[in-house]
Each structure stands twice: as C-alpha cells, then as structure tokens.
Amino acid sequence: MDFQLARERGKIINSVRGFFIDREYLEVDTPVLSAALIPEAPIEVFETILRSDRLGSRSFYMVPSPEVHMKKLLAAGSGNIFQIGKSFRNLEQTGRQHNPEFTMLEWYTVEADYMQSAELTEELFGVLAKQAGRPELSPPFRRLSVQEAFMEFSGIDLEKTQSPRQLVEECERLGMLQVPTDSRMNWEDLYHRIFLTWVEPRLPADIPLLLYDYPRRIPCLARDIPGTPWKERWELYIDGIEIANCYSEETDPARVEDFFIRENAKKIASSAVVPDMDQEFLNIFHQGYPRSSGVALGIDRLVMALTGVKSIEGVIFFPISDIVGG
User: Fold this and answer.
1) Residues 225, 264: contact at Cβ < 8 Å?
2) Alpha helix positions (H), the chain
3) What is the CATH number of the domain that holds 8?
4) What is the spatial distance between Cα 307 and Cα 231, in angstroms, rounded to a whole number?
5) Rounded (to 5) percent helix, strand, coil in the chain
C-alpha cells in the first residue's frame, strides 16, 4: 500500500474539485443504488435486493455511472453540475486497466456541445499536468476522427463501408475473419472487433489523443451530426488507454425512447440481469430537457496518467484482484 501515492491521488481529486467549483459548477452527490437504469447492452450491472418492512423486497442496481440521476437534476434546472463518486460494472476485466468498482468524475455543461466540452477538458488537463509536472499531458491534444483513424490504421473507409457484408470483406482482407462465426456478426460487432484488435492498438500514444465523431450505428445517447453517418461524441486516450467519454447529449424524446427500447431488447436477449427501464428518466425529455454536453472521466486512470503508475491496482486500495486472491 503506497500512502504517498494516496496523498498524490488526494491532491489530484482536490484540484479537480477546485477546478469545477471555481467555474461555478454545482457539486452533486447522487445515489449509487438505483431501482431502474438506462439500458446499455454492452454494460453488465450488479444487482442487489432491497428488503424493507414497509416497502417489501425489490431489486436494486449499482449504478455503472451517475448519468441517470445527474440528468434528472439537469432537467430540474440545476445548471452546470459535476460529481466525483463510485461506479460499478460487472463482468469487467481485472488488472492493469480495470476494476469492477471505480471512481468516476462526471460533469455536464448546459448550452454546450462536445467540442466545447473538449476545450474545457483541455483546460482541466492544463491545470493538472502543470501541478503534476507532466508537460507531455498538457494541451493541445492531438485530434483524430474515427474515420481518419480507420483509414490510417486499417485502410477502411468507414463512411463507404456501411453494410455488414462490406465489413466482413474488410476483416477477410486484414486476416481477422474466423468463418463461420464472424461472418454472422452484425455491423456493430464487426466494427468493435476491428477497432479493438486493429485500430485502437495503433493509435498514437505520445500525447493525449481526442478520438472524435463516432459512427451513428454504435448506439448511445449522443446527438447525430446531420447529413453524416457520425455522432457528436469523443473519447480521450492517454498512453493508449481510454480515459474519458463525451457526448453532445441527445434531447429528442423519440430518439431517447427508441434507444431505450432497442437497448432493452438487446439486454433481454443477452444478459442475465435486466434492470427495469427508468420511465421517470424518459419523461424528463418531454419537459424541455436542456441542451448540454456531458463528460465521464475515470479518476483512477487519471491518477495513473498523472503519476506514471502503470496499473490501476497501484492507485486504489483493495483492488478486487487482491480481495479474491488474483
């Protein structure tokens, strides 16, 4: 247990908190237990049981991020908000980059889009990198679109490769296809296979990289870019590790409800734990939900980047790998 590193972690968190408070963001503290969640097919959640003499017994879920509650606060008129708290994801890997319980920084800026959030993120890193003596993490970040990344590192023109059959052909060209399993995968699955095994490992890692404009065919609650196959979304990579995710938040009630229905159907088909859909969350988009942009950033990975520690197990006390013995 490295207590000096724990002190450094505390300084980083205090600096993050001060950064947002100085900019008049409201710090909020929302529940880690929720009776219902936003359905997200790629994310497995922890389920527990609430037992109460008055309320009876019912399922509750450990939140994979504070999004569901923070957006309710935005809809209620909170203005700009941020939170530093625990999040939980099941079926996660353990080891250098992952722990099923982790600390998340999430913030929302009203009347902003994803590129304005990128500017604020660069400003935050400018402060933190200077304090940590890590000038290589200072802005400006390198910026690369997903389209550019696929073209440069795999030779795939995603904009012209919009059918599963075309991606299968590209997998064959790259020597990645295992027939017949992969040939039956859908576009989204094939995209992830190529990105994770071919593109992501080749992303430049010398300075922070902002990878932006993700495909519309990858479901998420980010706004579409009109007339294009892209969404207003970016992810931030440091030393080849994804550390933050940002959207221009979707505000159209019909699009949000369609996302819920489609993702919930995927959960039912593939997951042992299917949380109740949060109808209250759906309702806020019919009540003038504000234009906004949100960023979710992993504090544990941020501490790794700023201190040079190479494993998430070094920046948290009692990682799950220690608790269960490997």
Assistant:
1) no
2) 3-22, 67-75, 114-132, 146-154, 164-173, 187-194, 253-270, 279-283, 299-307, 320-323
3) 3.30.930.10
4) 33
5) 40, 25, 35
282 inside domain: yes
Are 159 and 213 in contact by the 8 Å Cβ rule? The answer is: no
Tokens of 5: 């590193």
Are 20 and 324 spatial neighbours (Cβ–Cβ below 8 Å)? no
- What angle, rounded to 10 degrees, do the helices at 114-132 and 299-307 form? 40
Structural domain total, the chain = 1
Q: Which of 65, 9, 10 is nearest to 294 (CA)?
A: 65
Q: Is 151 exposed, middle or buried (0-12, 13-18, 19+ CB in 10 A)?
A: middle
Angle formed by the axes of helices 164-173 and 187-194, nearest 10°: 30
* The amino acid at 167: L
Per-residue pLDDT of the chain (326 residues; tens, 9 = 90+): 799 999 999 999 999 999 999 999 999 999 999 999 999 988 999 999 999 988 889 999 999 999 999 999 999 999 999 999 999 999 877 767 889 999 999 999 999 999 999 999 999 999 999 999 999 999 999 999 999 999 999 999 999 999 999 999 998 899 886 655 565 788 999 999 999 999 999 999 999 999 999 999 999 999 999 999 999 999 999 999 999 999 999 999 999 999 999 999 999 988 778 888 888 999 999 988 999 999 999 999 999 999 999 988 889 999 888 888 65
Q: Is residue 253 in a domain?
A: yes
CA 298 to the chain's CA centroid: 8
The parent domain of residue 97 ranges over: 3-137+247-323
Residue 161 CA to residue 165 CA, distance in Å, equals 9
Buried/exposed 239-263: b ≥16 CB within 10 Å, e otherwise: bebbbbbbbbbbbeeeebeebbeeb
Let me know if residue 156 belongs to a domain.
no
Question: Is 223 part of any domain?
Answer: no
